[in-house]
Each structure stands twice: as C-alpha cells, then as structure tokens.
Amino acid sequence: MRKIYLEIRAKKSYDSNSSTVSGCGDGSVSASVRILRFERSCVKIMANRIVLNTISYHGKGAVENIVPELTARGYHKAFVCSDPDLLKFGVTYKVTSLLDAARFPYEIYSEIKPNPTIENVQHGVAAFQHSGADCIVAIGGGSSMDTAKAVGIIANNPEFADVRSLEGVAPTKKHAVFTIAVPTTAGTAAEVTINYVITDVEKKRKFVCVDTNDIPEIAVVDPDMMATMPKGLTAATGMDALTHAIEGYITKAAWEMTDMFHLEAIRLISKYLRASVAGEAEGREGMALAQYIAGQGFSNVGLGIVHSMAHALGAVYDTLHGVANAILLPTIMEYNAPCTGEKYREIARAMGVEGVDAMGEAEYRAAACAAVKQLSQDVGIPADLKDIVKDEDVQFLAESAYADACRPGNPRDTSVEEIAALYRSLM
Predict the structure, then answer these.
(1) Burial (CB count <10 Å: 0-12, 13-18, 19+), residue 45
(2) Are 80 and 91 in contact (CB under 8 A)?
(3) Helix (H, G, I), strand (E, B) or coil at 202
(4) Does an H or E element contain 370, and which?
C-alpha cells in the first residue's frame, strides 16, 4: 500500500472538529491521514514531494563561498540578519569580514529575539525596504533565519504584510528575496526547511508558517561558525535536532526517502552530540551535518506533538525551544509508541542499543525511549517541567498545542485533555 500526502492550502488553522480517517498507522506506511476542516481550504492528493536548497556547502571554510555566490548572481547589497549576541561575540563578523574584504555593501538587522515576534518581522521588513538591499544573508540559529524568511517572503509578497496571514500554508506567489543561510547552531536546520515559527506576543502563542517559497536558495553549513556555542546551547539545539529526526521518522507522512534521512541523523546525533557538548571539533563537525540531514527529512513530512507542546511553552514562558523539546521527547515517545509499528526498533539500533533484533516489541520500544532519556541526561537537560510550567496555565497550553500546525502529523491521534495530562505528567 502506498502512502498519500495531503497538501493543504489554506488561509488559517483548522476547525477543532477534525475528521479522522483512521487511527494509528502501522509504522511502515502512512496507513491513515487526518483531513482538517480549514477555512477556504482546498485539499489535493499528491505524490510524495521533496523540497531542498538549490545549493548547499558543507565543512570548514564553507563561508568562503558566500561572496562568490552573491557576485556571480549580480547582487549588489546584502541585508544581514543576525541576532545581538552573535554580533557581540564576533560570530557575525566571520561573514561580514568577508563582505568587507570584497567591498560588498551590506546592512545589518539585529532586532531579533530568541523567539522572534511579529514586531521583529514588521521592523525587519521596513528595515529591508529602507536599506536598498537586493539579497539576504541570514546568520544565526532558528531565530535569525526564521526572521529572515518572514522578511524575505513579505518583501516579495506585500499582500501578506499582516504577518498572521502567513500562518499555516499561505498561497504566496513569489519566492522570498534571494537568501543565503548560515547556521551558527547545530539544531534548527532552518537553512534547509520550508517553514518558520513566529511568536504572537499579544495572543501568547507561536504559529507555524509553511511555504516552499521561503526556503533559502543556498545553505552554508560551516562548523567553524558553531565553534563558540556555549555548552548549554549546544545541548539544547542538538536535542532539537534529535527531536526533528525522531518525530519526522514516525510522523504519519513519513516515507522511504525521509526515513533514510531521519535514521542517519539519529545515528550521527547519538554518535556526536556528547562530544560536541564537550567542545570537541569532531563532535561539532558531526552535529553540523547531522542537524542538516534531519532538516532534509522533517521539513518535507512534518513533525508531531513534541513540537506542538514545545511551541506553547516557548510562547508562554519563552522557554528555549531545544530544552522544551528535550524534556518532552521521551514522554511523548512513550505515549506514541502504540502507533509506531517497528520503528522504535530502528531508533534504538541507530542510537547504538545492542541486541535489538532479539527484543520483543515492548522491550525495543522501552530501549529506544531509555536511550533518548540517557542522551538528554548526559548533555545536561532538565528531566521535567517543574520549574517551568504553572498548573493554572496547563489548559491554555494544551489548547495551544492542539491548535498547532505540527499536531496533525503525530502518529497517535490526541486531544486537548490528553495533551494536558502529558504536561502534568512532567510537573
């Protein structure tokens, strides 16, 4: 039986009374889909689709390709999106020094928060228009790149100036402003994804925007740009990458090509994250590649309720996204296990668990969850949400998570009540 992929073109999010075609998949095929009632929606059955960068550069010294790529295309001025800390600690300078040496004009925009807001985007669009730039260079983690994506989309599609109108799958007509994305963390893979996340401060929620027009044309993945990441950020972004790989592997839309990406990412992260947190160069290089490979997969098939619940935590408490994911992941894996077929056996194998072929279903599922818990503990991630979540916020968090765009891809169908119980189980 072949899988079906539903492309949902819509203006806004779904009606909570979604129609379930069927429940759990068997873990090897997408045996079920969920059709959501969208406002002004048009649902079309399509073949599996993969969207990736036109070009990507990998390895030490990859940033040396930025100026040649810009000049070869005839661009004249870059709009550099990078957050204040990267400017402060000289990370952005590793790229702007190359622009300076080539006398390539640029303007820096750094009004970017860890969880970028609607206001950050609006100010960024105005700054881009005022700058006279004709291309974007995004330098940073997910915050800088998500801001740059939204700015680039609105600049070329001004009818979407209301940032909220981009939520879900927005029918933009033009590709974003030409962008080169340079990650400085090994986790978000925003340089290779077709989505970005913006925080609505007024409504205390994050919303996901999915648009093939937002993917950067060029990704420059240079481990030297990640060399100064502090230990805590290295751990958090690395566990974010692991969450991408595991959720992407078990999502309802997963298929053979994305399984290939996700399993290799899980293997590499399990091999290199501890060393990367310890500051070892080999670990940094391994994680730079691993997180990109995970992005190649999940960007094309979606995620699940780990991300939905983490988005809610980030919106309400400004919790670091990777930390939220890492705390939630083992518990949600246990919750999803009945709907994953034999996939946890392969997760356990990729994480280095021995003897998985001799294990029964319950044993290999438990082994996969235990391996994730151990890795998270080894890199210093908190074990629970006790110091983060307030009981009076749980209902709102659960409702926000249920309304999140990542939720429908979860292998197990869920409810607001079950999500609330999952939050409470970690308090």
Answers:
(1) exposed
(2) no
(3) coil
(4) helix 361-378
Residue 90 identity: G
What would the pLDDT profile of 39-63 be if each residue is shown by its tens digit?
334 445 568 999 999 999 999 999 9
Distance between CA atoms of residues 245 and 294, nearest Å: 5
What stretches of 236-314 adopt beta strand conformation (E)?
none
Q: Which residues contact 356 (CB under 8 A, 6 or more apart)?
A: 345, 348, 349, 364, 367
How far is Cα 227 from Cα 323, in angstroms, rounded to an integer? 20
| Contacting residues for 224 by C-beta, under 8 A, at least 6 apart | 60, 61, 63, 94
> In which element (H, E) is residue 205 found?
strand 205-210
- Cα separation of 355 and 348, whole Å? 10
User: Bridge partners of 341?
Assistant: none
CA 103 to chain CA mean position, Å: 34
Contact between 256 and 155 (Cβ < 8 Å) = no
**Amino acid found at 254:** A
Supply angle C-alpha 110, 127, 91, rounded to 5.
25
Quote the tokens at residue 185.
Answer: 């963390």
Rounded to two decimals, the pTM is 0.89
